[in-house]
Amino acid sequence: MASLKSYFSAAVFSGLTILSFAPAARAEGEVNVYSYRQPELIQPLLDAFTKETGIETNVLFLDKGLVERIQAEGVNSPADVLLTVDIARLVEAKEGKVTQPVLNDPVVEKDIPANLRDPEGEWFGLTTRGRVVYASKERVTQKDITYEELADPKWKGKICIRDGQHSYNIALIASMIAHHGVDYTRTWLTGLKNNLARKPDGTDRSQAKSIFSGECDIALGNTYYVGLMLTNDREPEEQEWARSVRVIFPNAGDRGTHVNISGMALTKYAPNKDNALKLMEFLASREAQEIYAKQVFEYPVLPGAEPSDVVKGFGPINPDKLPLTDIAAHRKEASELVDEVGFNDGPTN
Predict the structure, then answer these.
(1) Is the pLDDT of residue 14 over 80?
(2) Radius of gyration of the chain from Cα atoms?
(3) DSSP-based three-state secondary structure for 348
(4) Kind plus residue range of the DSSP H or E element containing 261
(5) d(Cα 4, Cα 143) in Å, to the nearest integer?
């Protein structure tokens, strides 16, 4: 069987990070994981898998360029399973022809809702994160909000957001197109732009910092960042930022809050295919989803599986049921609208 071990020296010299897990006592072979997620975030999952199956896991981590790497490796690629975040990267992997379908797998199909997996079986969601509103606990008394309302002039000069071309925002804008069409979304995006307190900048964490400092009253950010900040003992100032905001789930009372995913895919030339499928079935299970969700402060996709206590503290989420494939289909239009309205230039009046 192909292994990542033979890639170790080359990977070090090319700036990649490889994490190898010790084999279990009853080794049953191995499986190679290419991951966009930090190794420490997925280690508890893979440890549990090895304990249950005896299958050794090897991980190659890279924060960008994994699809290109698999393409370059071709039929000799040791990659078995791709783990990634964001619908954009899953679609990129499929369109880059580095994945293969997993069809009629009763375990995976039972545990992962249809709207959170590729209809052709080439990728599957594992956890979700809501694109929510961070609201100042001191200055915002409103408890409910919609994405549509973010264009209301009452919020003029009060909204912060990161780069409009960031994949998190592109997915949200694409969901607006899917629900309302391009013309409506263009008008909405222009209204949102004119309500900004400043030019789009920073990360989701820094949006919370801007609320804490009084630069803005509300911001758009992912739910999991609040969990990461609240539990960041190494940088306690982030805990202050997070405690200054309240999470509001937009459109909670109607179509639901926009969500994105972390997900998995079976690679095209998986040399350890049987073990890869075992890993994918394990990752789809309630046990694994709860481990993963609690590790990364996200929501399991399996109905009934529990998120962490920190995430529960945000309140219940009513996720938008729109298939992610419908959202992904509008990503190009969303990106074009960001440029067309000059969103990243910030407010014009």
Answers:
(1) no
(2) 21
(3) coil
(4) strand 259-267
(5) 50
Model pTM?
0.88
Cα 139 from Cα 133, distance rounded (Å): 14
Tens digits of per-residue pLDDT, 55-74?
A: 999 999 998 899 999 999 99
Residue 116: the pLDDT is 93
Q: What would the two tokens of residue 79 be? A: 């990659």
For the chain, report the end-to-end CA distance as a whole number of angstroms: 62
Which neighbouring-strand residues pair with 60? 18, 34
Cβ atoms of 248 and 145 closer than 8 Å: yes
For 40, the token pair is 């420490």
Specify whether the CB–CB gap between 124 and 280 falls below 8 A.
Answer: yes
Q: Would you state the pLDDT for residue 28?
A: 63
Looking at the chain, the number of H-run helices and the number of E-run strands are 15, 11
Distance CA 79, CA 4 (A): 8
38: left (phi over 0), alpha (psi -120 to 50) or beta: beta
- 288 pLDDT more than 70: yes
Which parts of 64-204 are beta strand (E)?
Answer: 81-85, 99-100, 124-136, 159-160
Cα–Cα distance, 36 to 33 (Å, whole number)? 10
Reduced to 3 states (helix: H, G, I; strand: E, B; else coil), residue 128 is strand
pLDDT the model gives residue 38: 87
What are the structure tokens assigned to 347, written together? 């407010």
* CA 90, chain centre distance (Å): 10
- Nearest alpha-carbon partner for 129 in 304, 347, 282, 324: 324
